[in-house]
Amino acid sequence: MTTLASGTDTLTRDALTVLQPGFAGTSAPDWLLRRLGEGLASVGLFGRNIASPGQLASLTAQLRAERDDVLVAIDEEGGDVTRLEVRTGSSFPGNHALGAVDDADLTRQVAFELGRRLAACGVDFNWAPSADVNSNPGNPVIGVRSFGADPDLVARHTAAYVTGLQAAGVAACTKHFPGHGDTAVDSHLALPRIAVDPAVLAERELAPFRAAIAAGSRAVMSAHILVPALDPDRPATLSRRILTDLLRGELGYDGLIVTDGMEMQAIAGTYGIEHGSVLAIAAGADAICVGGGLADDETVRRLRDALVAAVRAGDLAEERLADAAERVRALARWTASAAASASADRGGAHTDIGLVAARRALRRTPAAPFTPLTDAPYVAALTPVANIAVGDETPWGVAAELARLLPGTETGSFAGEDAGHAALIAAGERRIVAVVRDEHRHPWMTAALDTLLAARPDTVVVEMGVPQAPPRGALHLATHGAARVCGRAAAEVIAGA
Question: Superkingdom, according to UniProt (predicted)?
Fold first, then answer.
């Protein structure tokens, strides 16, 4: 194991150890390698860091050449939120599709195969699964990232996902504690508030986290949300009542607690990332995730110095920081052991399990026979503003898969009050396939479908978000997610493949 740089005191090393920063580029920058030598123990990967599985494997090898026990984390939920396949779309459907199938063993198999691919690239820590109960259909940031709106369903699939992922030797990080499903605000932009009583929280929000803990989830990620019934003053990430008293005390959780991205405005815009990071560690968090938007040495230095200064000023107990750092190291030890024991099992790859799951998740209305298209259609994608967690780099829809089955298929993206009329003009005489994402959340999308179906009642409608709006069209397909395999499953039905 690499020896940390001489002259770096224990306090400073511990402050670096609890940070999980991101960085720019597809190879490790010099500053990051230097910080690994000084005590940094984790890094976070995003789409900007990944070009191919081979490149990713080279990157993780580069990191481990500097520090062999470094935790390499990634935000790879599968489905809409993919970093491994950020430029192509995911080979795995997301949680909502798995919840629609409601086969816990299928969920376990999907998570295992996803974990197997991550492990093959040298990634050993995944910020997944989302255990949020999507009780608010208008939720702007969770949606298809949730297994569903039923707490029992979400609980059993969260447990299955944790079990499958960790069987592949990759640590699971169940999120977003104590539950982000009943929010109407995106915490990337502001501080959401969940105003329900403790009994509802216990029965609904906390049920999946209890299941995850029972399944042995090695990490839990906190949410940047205010839950007055638990703490009227501070968001969960900064709340001792929530992280220490509830999660550690009442729920008996003893693994790593990691924060959601501290650069998100729910924290950065109210407390600032330096003060917020100090408060988070003091509250009971063990690792500070930062790097979705801030990914440089200056950020790491500022956070390290803020933690050291807080200890020296008496605002953060040195024992609490040391305990947090030890929990990070303990997870690194677990991943090394789990990788060794899992390697023998990874030969049983089921590389098509994602497509199998996407096909099973597809729901069609009406159930009556549909005459498949034989001529190339026009795909009108009614495109909402991208969910920040998903990003706008990842392609979605059915056009690419339909073009493979029906060469000559063309597509266009439309939004706003004139979207329906614009799509009709662009389509001309061709059969229209209208693709939507959370129609129930976007009145302009509903109006556009009204326009399309009034003029062209033979339009096929594909809903790739949460299917809350009434099904309509000559054929309505609900994919329960916008992953590439979800688009392929829909295209197969449309083209009769």
Answer: Bacteria
The tens digit of pLDDT for each residue in 361-378 reads: 999 998 778 899 999 999
User: Is the distance from CB of 262 to CB of 276 less than 8 angstroms?
Assistant: yes
pLDDT value for 7: 36
**Beta-strand runs (E) in 203-275:** 219-222, 256-258
- Compute the Cα dihedral for 425, 430, 431, 434 and give only its sign: negative
Between CA 168 and CA 175, with CA 173 as vertex, the angle to 5 degrees is 140
Answer yes or no: do 220 and 95 share one domain. Answer: yes
Which of 281, 312, 347 is the endpoint of a domain?
Answer: 347
User: In CATH, what number is assigned to the domain containing residue 318?
Assistant: 3.20.20.300
SS3 235: coil
The stretches of 219-317 forming alpha helices (DSSP H) are: 240, 265-268, 273-283, 297-313
Q: Residue 439 falls within a domain, yes or no? A: yes
- Pick the catalytic residue from 188, 224, 442, 480: 188
C-alpha distances in angstroms, 293 versus 65, 288, 389?
26, 14, 11
Position 4 in a domain:
no
Residue 357 resides in a domain: no
What CATH number has the domain bearing residue 491?
3.40.50
Domain that includes residue 238, residue range = 10-347
Total of domains in the chain: 2
d(CA 222, CA 432): 43
pLDDT score, position 339: 83
* Same-domain pairing of 332 and 376: no
Whose CA is closest to 21, among 60, 81, 64, 71? 71
Spatial contact of 186 and 223, defined as CB atoms under 8 Å apart: no
260 is catalytic: yes
Write the DSSP assignment of 103-155 as a string of letters.
-HHHHHHHHHHHHHHHHHTT--EE---B------TT-SSSGGGSS-S-HHHHH
Tell me: do 37 and 14 sit in the same domain: yes
The whole-angstrom separation of Cα 78 and Cα 168 is 15
Cβ atoms 23, 29 nearer than 8 A: yes
Q: Which of the following is catalytic: 80, 260, 286, 438?
A: 260
The reply to whether 411 falls in a domain is yes
